[in-house]
Known about the structure:
Layout: E1 25-28, E2 33-36, E3 39-40, H1 41-47, H2 50-59, H3 65-77, H4 83-90, H5 98-108, H6 121-146, H7 160-169, H8 175-188, H9 195-204, H10 210-221, H11 229-240, H12 243-255, H13 273-288, H14 293-309, H15 315-325, H16 333-354
Antiparallel strand pairs: 1-2, 2-3
Helix pairs in contact: 1-8, 2-16, 3-6, 4-5, 4-6, 5-6, 5-10, 6-7, 6-16, 7-8, 8-13, 8-16, 9-10, 9-16, 10-16, 11-15, 12-14, 13-14, 13-15
Amino acid sequence: MTAPSTTTFPAKGLEGVVATQSAISYVDGEAGRLIYRGYDIDDLARHSTFEETAYLLMIGRLPTRSELKEFAAQLKAAQRLDKVTLRVIKDAPPGSRPMNVLRTATSATVYTDPDKGDNSPEAELRKSIRLLAKVPTIIATFHRLRSGQRPLTPRKSLSLAANFLYLLTGEVPEQEVARAFDVALILHADHELNASTFTARVIAATLMDVHGAVTGAMAALAGPLHGGANMEVMKMLLEIDQPERAERWILERLAAKQKIMGFGHRVYRTEDPRARHLRKMSEEMGKKLGQPKWYEISRKIEEVVMREKGLYCNVDFYSASLYYVMGIPVDLYTPIFAMSRVAGWCAHILEQHSDNRLIRPRAEYTGPLGLAYVPLNRRGR
Ligand code: ACO
């Protein structure tokens, strides 16, 4: 007996399914364009800052000068970690994966949040701003502690991007380096209904708060098919090590039907507009910081994958070599993605709550029906 067909299964992985309406970001997969709240990502990458872009995403419009100043002040006021969160980070066993620590510590910030339990739109926005401010500190604190270094206190004079690099390395970055990192954060801040954002909205739709939805989104982001791909890209570059070894390495993997990390996309059928900016920054920073090799290997891989499979690289491909030459540890690449994407997740959570309905789709049942129950003692060993 089979189940009566009450549902039609659209496509595996919900490909092509429009699951919500949103005014936050628009991905034009055919033209290769990404729009945040009406503004082209190219313009934002050229002219905006991460703080301004986060305001745009979360509040819905570009801030005035005084609004931006106030927003930046709110971020700075919330950067430091409370004792409970600090203890969660310190208690992580040696060798813990950074995304596991980040997810757990982010969740723990709710314990001491002054707005905990208040899910009014105003409180949700205040909690979102605090999360945006605290996530960079959590990542850097974890890294300092695991490498036997003293965690540093955030500097109020620095932008969110520059402050993160300072908290990580103990050195205030050169302006050009801080700007490249700032642009990388802008480029990662939102991307329509990707897997982690969809997760955040599903959780938010149960009327769970920002902390719960962001924690779930972080879990979804960490997988290698999503935000985990940037670390896998760097592992590949390190294994290849020389540009002249790239072609053979890729051909062997493709012949073995393996996926090349940092390539392909569910929505883009042309170049990912974010990859264009990251490619340029990877080249410039590679030269400036005396390590052009990783960009050269990446270029070669890009050429071979395009020739052999017709696939474009995605946002995770050139961010890997860019972060590497900046001296960022490879296993922090996905946490950095999360640090930026908190802005987009929170924007979507706030939007979901502003016009909520529980997200509860159906499944087409393919299992058996009408089986006779056999008591345990008659089922054999
Ligand atoms: N390397 C080699 N072949 C690939 C790749 C790749 N990176 N990506 C897709 N393909 C091939 C698949 O093998 C498949 O071929 P087939 O039809 O002959 O079986 C075809 O292209 C379609 O691929 P799917 O995996 O079905 O595409 P889907 O839309 O489900 O997945 C995804 C998109 C997950 C991004 C996929 O391209 C992939 O696994 N890429 C590598 C991981 C990666 O870079 N992820 C980061 C994505 S961006 C982000 O999340 C921030």
